[in-house]
Write a structure and sequence with these properties.
Shape of chain B: elongated
Protein name (chain B): EF-hand calcium-binding domain-containing protein 1
Structural class of chain A: mainly alpha
Pfam families (chain B): EF-hand_7
Number of strands of chain B: 2
Strand content of chain B: under 5%
Number of strands of chain A: 9
Strand content of chain A: under 5%
InterPro entries (chain B): EF_Hand_1_Ca_BS (IPR018247), EF_hand_dom (IPR002048), Recoverin (IPR028846)
Helix content of chain A: 55-70%
Keywords (chain B): Metal-binding, Repeat
GO molecular function (chain B): calcium ion binding
Oligomer: heterodimer
C-alpha cells in the first residue's frame, strides 16, 4: 500500500497528500482494507511490524476504551509483543502502532475522523512498507516480482512466525495491485476529459469559417472549470455530468447538450451557469459528440463529410474514410460491411499514426504531469509504461469518435521522419484511388481484413529479441555491403515467424531499411532483405506496413532482375504480401502481373534438368505462388489473361511436382470465376490434367482441382470432358474424406455441377452409388458442403429412379429439416431439391407427414428473392401431388394471403413462380374463392403488360385457372387483362401460346371479353394455332374462336328479331 | 609475321590442350581464348618496360577493378594492402609474386565458373589471412574493420565491429573453439549461401562475369 501511495498519490511539495478525487478514492480504498484486515486475516494481523508506524494524531486518551491501559493522557494497549512492548502507545500528540490489529482498532475508534487519521499516518510514514515488513521484503514488493524467493528471505530473516509474514506479504501485494488498477480507472476518466476538451475546441474552430462554417456557435454554459476538469456543478458531477454545451447549428434551433461520463445527450435546456432545472435527459445518449450533432443537424452532417474530404483538414478522421466506404457500399450493397470497413479504417489510421510515432517509448507526457513517475523504481516505470500504452490507444480511439484528432494527427504526420515514402502511402488513401477498390474478388471469404493495431509493448515487457534486433538494425543502417549481409544473416537467425520479432523489426525502423536495401544494386543485400521480408510478411500488420511504405513497388521492380534467386525470392515475397486488395492493386498498377507471368516460362517435363533449368522451375513456382495471391481480384485475373498467363499455366499444369501444381491449380481455380478462363481451361485441354491431379495424394491439390472443376463444370462441354477423362469416379471417392471440409465442399461442388448433365448421372454416378454417400452428408456438415450436396441431390432428382433412392436412403427427412435453415444459398437448393422430390407420390407423402409444405410455404416470407421464387416453384409439385391438397393449403393460416401479396414483387422470377403456384392452388375451388377475396384478379391483371416469356406463360396459366370462380372472367376483362393476353400470341415461345390459348378460352366465356378479343384481332392467330400439333392447344384455340363466333351469331339474331 | 603468328597459334593450341586437361571448367577453345587474353594483358605490362614473368599485384588489381567491378568498399580502396593481396595470393599459388598463365587460368576457373564447393574453398583461403587454416577473431576484425560507419557518439568506435564479429562467430563457429575452421565455414555457407562472401567481396557478380566471358570468349573467337 505504501508503494502505490508513494508512487501514485499526488503529493504536495510540503509532503502532504493533495485533496484530489484520486487521492480521496485511494485513501478510501486503503481505509476499507485496514478496517477489515483484522477480521479477515486475524493471524496476519497479529504480526508485529519491524518498526512502529508513528504519527501525530488528533485522538486523545478519552477516545480509547477497553483493551487499553489509560494513565492520564497516555494510553497503552493490553496487547504486547513477545518482548513485552505494547503494540499501541499513545503519548499525545504522537501515536505508535506496531500491528495491523491495533491499526484497524484505532481506525474503528477514530470513527468519523478515520480518514484524517489514515491520511496523517501515511503522510508521516512514507516508507510504511519498510516499517511493516522490513527493508528486504519491501524491496521485493517494489520489484513486483511475485515469485522471488520470499522463503529464502524469511530464512535469513529468522522471523518468529515466517508463515504469517509471507501471508502478510502476499496480502499487501494484492492490495497494492488493486489500488493501482483502481487508480487506472480514475485516470481513464481524466484522459477522456482531455479528449473531450479537444473535441470541443475543434468544434469551436468550425464556427469561424464564414461561408463554410458548419455551426454558428459552440459554447460552454460555464466558464469556471473545476480542478478535475469538469464544469458541471458539483452536485451534478455526482451523476457523472462533465459539462454542458450550447451549440447553435446553422439549420435548426439551439441544442443544449450534456456531456457526461455515460455519453452525450440533449438536456432540458441549460442556458446558464447554476441553472436549477433542465438537467433531465431529453434525447438518446450518443457515444460521441459528432454523432449527436450529425443526427440533430442535417446540414452539419452533410457538410462535415464534404468539407473533411475536400480539405482533409478538419475535423473528423472518419469523414476521410467515407469515400472508401461509399464505394464499398455500391459494390457490396451491404450496410453491415461498410460499417466494419469504417471501423477498420479508423483503426488502420490509428495504426499508421502509431507507425509514425514508433521510436518513442517514453510514457505519455500526461502521466508525467500527474506526477506518477517521479519517485518510481524501475518496476513501476515499466508498469506505467504498459498502462500508458493502453491508455494511449484508448485515447486515440476516443478521439477518432470525437473530432479533435485530425489537427493533432496532421502535426504528427509532418513531424514524422519517414523518408519520402509517406507521400505515396497517403496518395493511396485519396478518393480517386478508392474507386479502384471496386474490383473485388469472387472469393470474399478469403479476403483478409486490414487489421487493427496490436502493439507489442501494450501487454508484455519488451522481449530480449527486441533489443537485439534494434542493435542489428543499427548495424544495417551504418554498414557497408559486407556488414549488411552479415547483419541480415544474423537477423535471419531469429525466429521470424514469431510475432514479437516481426513487430520488433517494424518498431525499431527495420522495415524501412530492409525496403531501402531493395533499391540498391547489391544483389546479396537484396537477397538477404527479401529472405527476411518474405518471412515477416506473414504478419498482417507487417504486410500492410510494407505496402504503406511503398515496398511493394521495389519488390515488383526486382522481378526484372537477371539473377534468378532474386526473382524467385521477390515473387515469393509478393505471394505473401499480396493477401489484401490494396497490395494486389499495387502489384497490378506497377506492372507486376505481367512480370510475374513472364516468370512462368520454364521447361518442366524433362526427366533430368540442369541446375539452371531447375532454377527456372523454382522461379516459375514462385511466380505461380505470387499470381495465386494476386488472382483473388477480378482486375488481376483479367491482367493475367492479357499477359498471356493462361497457356503458361496450362503448361505448368503438366508438371510432375506437387509444389508446382498447388499454386498453379490454385490460381486457375481462383480465376475460373471468369468466363474467359473457363473457356480457356476447356479449350486448352486443361480439364484432362485437372482430372489427373484429382488422383493426387495431396489433399490441397485435390481440393483446388475439384474447385476448378466445380467452377468450370457450369459449362456442358466441360462436364462431358470430365466424364470422358474418367474424372467422376475420383470425385466420388473424395466424398469419403469427411474430415477435410474444404476438400469435401470442393468435391461435392464438382459433383453437383457435373450432375447437371443427365448423362453423367445416368451413366456414371448411379453405378458409383453416389446418392447414398450424398444423403449421408446431409447431416452435420458445414453450410458450404450442404449447399453443394443438396444442389447435387436436386440435379439427381431430375431422374425418377433417383427419387426412389433418395427416399430409400432416408434422405427426405434431413432435407426437410434443412428447410428451417437461414443461409439463402442453401435454402434455394433445398427448396429446389424438395420440389424435385415432391414429384414422386411416395416422397410427397413423407414430405407432407413431416410438415414440409408448411416449411416451404413459410420460406415465401424470406427476404431473398431467390429463396422466394425457389420456394414457390417447389410448392407447385407439392400441391399437385399431395393427397387432398386443397385441404392442406387451407390449413396453412394466412398462406394464401401471403402468396397473393407476393404478386406485388418486382422480380420477374418470383412473379413467374408465384403465378405457377397460384395456378396450382386455383384448381381447388374453395381456395380459388379465398384467392379472389384477397384480390388476386387485379394483381394478375396488372402484370399482363410484361414482356418476359416465362412470366407470360405462368401468368396466362394462372389467369386461366382463376377464371373459374364467380365473376372473375368479367373482372379480368374490366381490369384490362384481355388485350395484352392477345398480344402474347405473337410471342415466339410455344409454351406461352399454349397457356395463353387456354386463358383466352376461359375468358371468352364472358361476352364482353369476346368483343375485346375480336377487336384486338385474336381470331387470325388463333386459327393459326388451331393448326398446331398439340391437341390441347388446338382445342383451346378452337373453343375460344367458337365462343366468339357464338356471340356474333347471337348478336345477329338479336338484331334480326328486334 | 604470319609465320610468327602461325607458330604462335600452334604453340597456344598445344598449351591449351595441356591446360584444358588440368582445369575443370574450361574447354580447349576457351583456354585458348584465355591464353590470348593473358598475353594481351601481359603485353600491356611488358609495354611499361618491366620484366614479365606474369601479372604483378598492381596489374592484377587493375584487372579486378576493370573487368569485375570489384572496386567498391574496402577491397580496393580502403584496405588495398590487405585483401587485395589476399585475392592475389590465392591466385598466386607458388607465391612468386606473379600470377603465371597457369595460375591465371586455374584462378579464373573458380572465379568465373566455380562450383559452390570450390568457391567456399577459395573464399576461405582469401579470408584466412595468415594461411593457418583458421579464420580467427582478429582476422575477422581486420577484414570487417571498415565495414561500419563509426558513430561519433560512441565511446569505442570499434564497438560495433567487435559485436558484429561476435555475432558472426556465434553464428558460424559450430565447434565453439573461438575461430572458424574450414569445416565451420563450409557448414555455415551451405546453410546460408549469403555467408559465402561473409567478410568482403572476393568474387565477381554475375553481371561482370557474363560480360567478361562475353568479352574473352566471343569477341576473340571472331578475330
Amino acid at each position: 500500500m505504501g508503494l502505490s501511495l508513494t508512487k501514485a498519490a499526488q503529493w504536495t511539495t510540503a509532503g502532504k497528500l493533495e485533496f484530489t478525487p484520486m487521492n480521496e478514492s485511494l485513501l478510501k480504498e486503503l481505509l476499507s482494507f485496514v478496517e477489515d484486515f483484522s477480521s479477515r486475516h486475524p493471524q496476519e494481523a497479529e504480526h508485529v511490524f519491524e518498526e512502529p508506524l508513528r504519527w501525530s494524531t488528533t485522538l486523545g486518551a478519552s477516545d480509547f476504551k477497553t483493551d487499553y491501559y489509560i494513565s492520564g493522557i497516555d494510553v497503552q494497549s493490553h496487547e504486547k509483543d513477545s518482548g513485552g512492548q505494547p503494540l499501541l502507545q499513545l503519548s499525545p500528540p504522537t501515536v505508535c502502532v506496531r500491528s495491523f490489529s491495533q491499526l484497524s482498532k484505532l481506525v474503528h475508534l477514530a470513527a468519523d475522523k478515520k480518514l484524517e487519521e489514515l491520511r496523517a499516518c501515511l503522510e508521516e510514514n512514507k516508507d510504511a512498507m519498510v516499517k511493516i515488513l522490513g527493508p528486504c521484503f519491501a524491496d521485493i514488493l517494489e520489484k513486483e516480482d511475485t515469485h522471488t524467493d520470499v522463503l529464502h528471505l524469511v530464512d535469513k530473516d529468522q522471523g518468529k512466525d515466517p508463515e504469517f509474514k509471507i501471508n502478510l506479504f502476499h496480502l499487501l501485494q494484492n492490495m497494492n495491485k488493486q489500488l493501482l488498477s483502481k487508480l487506472l480507472e480514475e485516470i481513464e476518466v481524466e484522459l477522456n476529459l482531455t479528449a473531450l476538451k479537444n473535441d470541443i475546441e475543434s468544434l469551436k474552430r468550425l464556427c469561424s469559417e464564414g461561408e463554410k462554417r458548419l455551426l454558428k456557435s459552440v459554447r460552454y454554459t460555464s466558464d469556471f472549470e473545476f480542478s478535475n476538469g469538469c464544469r458541471a456543478p458539483l452536485w451534478r458531477q455526482v451523476y457523472g455530468d462533465i459539462c454542458y454545451l450550447v451549440v447553435e447549428p446553422c439549420d435548426t434551433e439551439n441544442l443544449y447538450i450534456t456531456c457526461s461520463t455515460a455519453g452525450f445527450f440533449l438536456n432540458g435546456g441549460i442556458k446558464q451557469e447554476g441553472a436549477e432545472s433542465g438537467y433531465e435527459r431529453t434525447s438518446d445518449t450518443y457515444k460521441d459528440l459528432l454523432t449527436l450533432l450529425k443526427s440533430r443537424s442535417p446540414y452539419f452532417a452533410e457538410h462535415i463529410n464534404k468539407q473533411a474530404s475536400a480539405v482533409q483538414e478538419l475535423p473528423s478522421t472518419q469523414s476521410v474514410h467515407r469515400h472508401v466506404e461509399s464505394v464499398d457500399m455500391e459494390e457490396q450493397g451491404e450496410l453491415q460491411r461498410s460499417y466494419e470497413q469504417q471501423e477498420k479504417n479508423v483503426q488502420d489510421k490509428s495504426r499508421k499514426q502509431h507507425l509514425l510515432n514508433k521510436k518513442k517509448y517514453e510514457p505519455c507526457p500526461r502521466w508525467k504531469k500527474l506526477g506518477l513517475m517521479s519517485p518510481c523504481g524501475k518496476a513501476e516505470e515499466r508498469k506505467s509504461r504498459n498502462s500508458s500504452g493502453m491508455e494511449m490507444s484508448s485515447e486515440i480511439r476516443k478521439k477518432k469518435q470525437g473530432s479533435g484528432a485530425k489537427s493533432k494527427m496532421k502535426a504528427e504526420f509532418s513531424l514524422s521522419s519517414l523518408p519520402g515514402r509517406l507521400s505515396s502511402s497517403q496518395k493511396i488513401k485519396t478518393p480517386a484511388r478508392a474507386t479502384e477498390l471496386s474490383s473485388e474478388s469472387s472469393s470474399q471469404s478469403e479476403e483478409e481484413e486490414e487489421q487493427s493495431e496490436r502493439r507489442l509493448e501494450s501487454n508484455t515487457d519488451l522481449p530480449p529479441e527486441y533489443w537485439q534486433i534494434q542493435k542489428l538494425v543499427k548495424y544495417l543502417k551504418g554498414g557497408d555491403q559486407t556488414a549488411t549481409v552479415l547483419t541480415l544473416c544474423a537477423m535471419l537467425d531469429f525466429n521470424l515467424m514469431q510475432e514479437t520479432c516481426q513487430l520488433a523489426i517494424r518498431d525499431v525502423g527495420g522495415l524501412e531499411v530492409l525496403i531501402n536495401l531493395l533499391d540498391t544494386d547489391e544483389v546479396k543485400c537484396k537477397i538477404g532483405s527479401l529472405k527476411i521480408l518474405r518471412k515477416i510478411s506473414h504478419n498482417v500488420q507487417i504486410r500492410q506496413t510494407i505496402v504503406d511504405m511503398g515496398g511493394l513497388q521495389s519488390i515488383v521492380k526486382i522481378l526484372d532482375s537477371p539473377v534468378k534467386d532474386l526473382k524467385a525470392l521477390a515473387a515469393e515475397t509478393i505471394a505473401s504480401v499480396a493477401r489484401f486488395r490494396r497490395a494486389r492493386r499495387t502489384v497490378r498498377l506497377y506492372g507486376g502481373i505481367k512480370k510475374l507471368v513472364n516468370l512462368l516460362h520454364c521447361v518442366t517435363n524433362l526427366a533430368s534438368l540442369t541446375a539452371n533449368q531447375q532454377k527456372d522451375v523454382e522461379v516459375a513456382r514462385c511466380g505461380a505462388l505470387a499470381l495465386w495471391s494476386c488472382s483473388k481480384c477480378t482486375k488481376n485475373k483479367e491482367a493475367i489473361r492479357k499477359a498471356g498467363g493462361i497457356p503458361l499455366l496450362g503448361r505448368l499444369l503438366k508438371s510432375p511436382h506437387e509444389n508446382m501444381l498447388v499454386p498453379v491449380v490454385g490460381t486457375l481455380q481462383e480465376c475460373a470465376s471468369q468466363e474467359s478462363y473457363r473457356i480457356a481451361i476447356q479449350t486448352e485441354g486443361m480439364v484432362k490434367d485437372l482430372v489427373k491431379n484429382l488422383n493426387s495424394d495431396n489433399e490441397e491439390l485435390q481440393m483446388h482441382c475439384a474447385n476448378a472443376i466445380f467452377k468450370c463444370a457450369e459449362d456442358e462441354q466441360t462436364r462431358d470432358l470430365v466424364r470422358k477423362y474418367k474424372g467422376l469416379q475420383p470425385l466420388v471417392s473424395l466424398l469419403a474424406k469427411v474430415n477435410n471440409k474444404q476438400l469435401l465442399a470442393a468435391a461435392t461442388g464438382a459433383i453437383w455441377k457435373c450432375s447437371i448433365s443427365v448423362d453423367n448421372v445416368a451413366e456414371r454416378f448411379q453405378e458409383y452409388k453416389v446418392l447414398e454417400s450424398l444423403v449421408e452428408l446431409l447431416t452435420d456438415q458445414p453450410e458450404d458442403v450442404l449447399v453443394n450436396v443438396v444442389g447435387a441431390l436436386g440435379e439427381f432428382a431430375q431422374i425418377p429412379a433417383s427419387k426412389t433412392i433418395i427416399r430409400q436412403c432416408g434422405g427426405i427427412k434431413p432435407l426437410v429439416n434443412l428447410l428451417s435453415g437461414t443461409n439463402p444459398e442453401l435454402l434455394v437448393n433445398v427448396t429446389k431439391t424438395v420440389g424435385a422430390c415432391a414429384t414422386d407420390q411416395d416422397n410427397m407423402a413423407i414430405i407432407d407427414q413431416l410438415d414440409g409444405v408448411r416449411l416451404v410455404w413459410s420460406l415465401l416470407k424470406n427476404p431473398s428473392a431467390d429463396v422466394q421464387s425457389s420456394a414457390a416453384w417447389a410448392l407447385c409439385p407439392c400441391i399437385e401431388n399431395a393427397k387432398d391438397s386443397g385441404e392442406m393449403v387451407r390449413s396453412l393460416v394466412g398462406g394464401l394471403e401471403l402468396i397473393v401479396n407476393l404478386l406485388k414483387s418486382t422480380n420477374d422470377e418470383v412473379l413467374a413462380s408465384v403465378c405457377a403456384a397460384i395456378a396450382k392452388i386455383a384448381k381447388d375451388k374453395e381456395n380459388l374463392a379465398v384467392l379472389t377475396d384477397h384480390g388476386v384478379v387485379p394483381l394478375l391483371a396488372k402484370l399482363t403488360n410484361t414482356t418476359d416469356d416465362k412470366l407470360r406463360q405462368h401468368l396466362a396459366e394462372a389467369i386461366g385457372h382463376c377464371c373459374m370462380w364467380g365473376s372473375n372472367r368479367a373482372s379480368f376483362g374490366e381490369a384490362g387483362a384481355v388485350a395484352p393476353l392477345v398480344r402474347y400470341l405473337k410471342s415466339k415461345d410455344a409454351t406461352v401460346h399454349q397457356s395463353t390459348a387456354m386463358a383466352l378460352y376461359q375468358l371468352s366465356k364472358d361476352p364482353s371479353n369476346c368483343i375485346t378479343m375480336h377487336e384486338k384481332g385474336v381470331v387470325k392467330p388463333l386459327i393459326h394455332i388451331m393448326g398446331s400439333n398439340d391437341k390441347t392447344l388446338q382445342e383451346a384455340a378452337a373453343g375460344c374462336v367458337r365462343n366468339i363466333r357464338l356471340l356474333a351469331v347471337a348478336n345477329r339474331k338479336a338484331i334480326l328479331f328486334y | 609475321m604470319s609465320d610468327m603468328s602461325s607458330l604462335n597459334r600452334k604453340l597456344i593450341q598445344t598449351l591449351a590442350e595441356t591446360i584444358s586437361k588440368q582445369v575443370d571448367h574450361f574447354n580447349k577453345t576457351e583456354v585458348e581464348c584465355l591464353i590470348r587474353e593473358f598475353n594481351v594483358l601481359l603485353g600491356e605490362c611488358a609495354a611499361s618496360g618491366r620484366a614479365v614473368n606474369g601479372l604483378d599485384k598492381e596489374k592484377f588489381r587493375s584487372i579486378l577493378h576493370n573487368n569485375f567491378g570489384m572496386t567498391d568498399d574496402m577491397i580496393m580502396d580502403l584496405a588495398p594492402l590487405l585483401v587485395d593481396p589476399t585475392v592475389f595470393r590465392t591466385f598466386d599459388r607458388d607465391n612468386d609474386s606473379f600470377v603465371s598463365l597457369k595460375e591465371w587460368i586455374e584462378g579464373l576457373s573458380v572465379f568465373l565458373r566455380g562450383t559452390m564447393d570450390e568457391k567456399i574453398k577459395y573464399c576461405f583461403q582469401v579470408y584466412d589471412l595468415n594461411s593457418d587454416n583458421y579464420i580467427s577473431r582478429e582476422e575477422m576484425f581486420h577484414l570487417l574493420k571498415n565495414s561500419l560507419i563509426r558513430q561519433p557518439t560512441e565511446e569505442d568506435p570499434d564497438e560495433g565491429i567487435k559485436d558484429l564479429v561476435e555475432i558472426t562467430l556465434k553464428r558460424m563457429d559450430h565447434d565453439h573453439d573461438g575461430r572458424l575452421s574450414f569445416s565451420d565455414f563450409e557448414k555455415a555457407v551451405k546453410e546460408e549461401n549469403l555467408l559465402l562472401e561473409a567478410f568482403g567481396t572476393c568474387l565477381p557478380d554475375i553481371m561482370s562475369t557474363e560480360a567478361f566471358e562475353q568479352h574473352v570468349f566471343q569477341e576473340q573467337l571472331v578475330l
